[in-house]
Design goal:
This protein is of the alpha/beta class and 315 residues long. The protein has 13 helices and six strands. The chain is 52% helix and 9% strand. It folds into two domains: 6-192, Protein-Tyrosine Phosphatase, Chain A (Alpha-Beta Complex); 207-313, Four Helix Bundle (Hemerythrin (Met), subunit A) (Up-down Bundle). α1 (6-20) packs across α2 and α10 runs antiparallel to α12. It has helices at 6-20, 64-74, 89-93, 111-125, 140-151, 157-167, 174-181, 188-192, 207-226, 240-253, 258-261, 265-287, 292-313; strands at 41-43, 46-53, 56-59, 78-81, 98-101, 130-133. The chain is globular. The protein has a six-stranded mixed sheet with strand order 1-2-3-6-4-5, with helices on both faces. β2 and β3 (56-59) form a beta hairpin.
Length: 315
């Protein structure tokens, strides 16, 4: 059942309605994805679920009550988010599920965050299955899961990269693939040396800082456009889709933030619209980076949206 299809939406809505009425639509246990499965699995409120080890699954953000009911029915005890958005801690707690929030970027993550993820997964697996997610469950969560699986001795680097391809990680996210490909098994003493006590929620950067970073991502996208939608010669480390994804995240994270709550609803609606435009640019870059006219039109739409927002709302 394809995510976003009318059938998927109907299933999700029905499951959520049953929960709201006090019923449990998943009273029967739901089998976890198995490590050998060659395609992602979709369930109510959970998409793109791929196992990287027995009881260790990467996938999308849980959607509403239905998503957390699916996780509970799978026996998941801990959810680890590598997305920037604030996790739905209350829905998780209501089902006896613990959250850990350790965000990473589309361009990969450093050694310190890698070891935090390794320890968080290792310790959580002692309590039961672990579900690791980003927003879509294709890129960041797959890169994190693959890297951790190598560090814990569950997969070779080559096998972990192969699992990322099952998750649908786009080839353009070289930094995420590099994290998995360069990962090595870690000694237990090295993992034990990492401080535990990980946060349920890691607050995003303040609004002003986020907008500075958004401007930076937008300037990178302009340079990428000038280079023919490829990494510029003077900035070869830039990944076009990653910059669009970063911009989308920065805007999306603040739709429900303090600044948006302090302003009329039209402000949040404009942020959400601009975030959706950035997401469409990311999707387009992943689908066909050669269609310069279409990509340019999408970037122009984002720039116009940002300008309109600044004119109307910038203090």
């Amino acid at each position: 059942m394809r995510r976003g299809s009318p059938l998927a939406a109907l299933a999700l809505s029905a499951a959520a309605m049953l929960v709201a009425c006090g019923a449990d639509p998943l009273r029967t246990a739901v089998a976890l994805p198995a490590p050998g499965e060659g395609a992602p699995r979709d369930s109510p409120g959970i998409h793109n679920a791929v196992a990287y080890h027995e009881g260790f699954v990467s996938g999308s953000v849980p959607e509403g009550d239905a998503g957390f009911e699916t996780l509970r029915a799978m026996g998941v005890r801990t959810v680890i988010s590598v997305d920037g958005a604030e996790p739905d801690v209350e829905r998780a707690r209501a089902r006896g599920i613990r959250y850990v929030h350790l965000p990473i970027g589309y361009d990969g993550f450093d050694a310190a965050r890698r070891m935090e993820l390794v320890r968080a997964v290792r310790d959580a697996m002692r309590d039961g299955p672990v579900y690791l997610h980003c927003h879509h469950g294709k890129h960041r969560s797959a890169g994190a899961a693959a890297t951790v699986a190598v560090a814990l001795g569950w997969l070779s680097p080559e096998a972990s990269v192969a699992r990322m391809k099952v998750s649908g990680t786009a080839p353009g996210y070289a930094g995420l693939y590099a994290c998995a490909a360069r990962s090595v098994p870690e000694a237990q003493a090295a993992i034990d040396a990492v401080p535990a006590g990980f946060p349920e929620v890691t607050p995003p950067a303040g609004f002003v800082r986020a907008m500075v970073e958004a401007d930076d991502a937008l300037e990178h996208l302009k340079a990428i456009e000038r280079a023919g939608w490829a990494p510029p010669a003077d900035h070869p480390d830039l990944v076009p889709a990653a910059e669009a994804g970063r911009l989308a995240d920065l805007l999306r994270l603040h739709v429900d933030g303090d600044r948006a709550r302090a302003k009329p609803a039209a402000f949040a609606a404009m942020l959400a619209s601009n975030a959706a435009d950035a997401q469409r640019l990311e999707d387009a870059l992943l689908a066909d980076p050669r269609d310069a006219a279409m990509l340019g039109a999408q970037l122009a739409r984002i720039q116009a949206g940002c300008k309109e927002c600044h004119v109307k709302w910038r203090d």
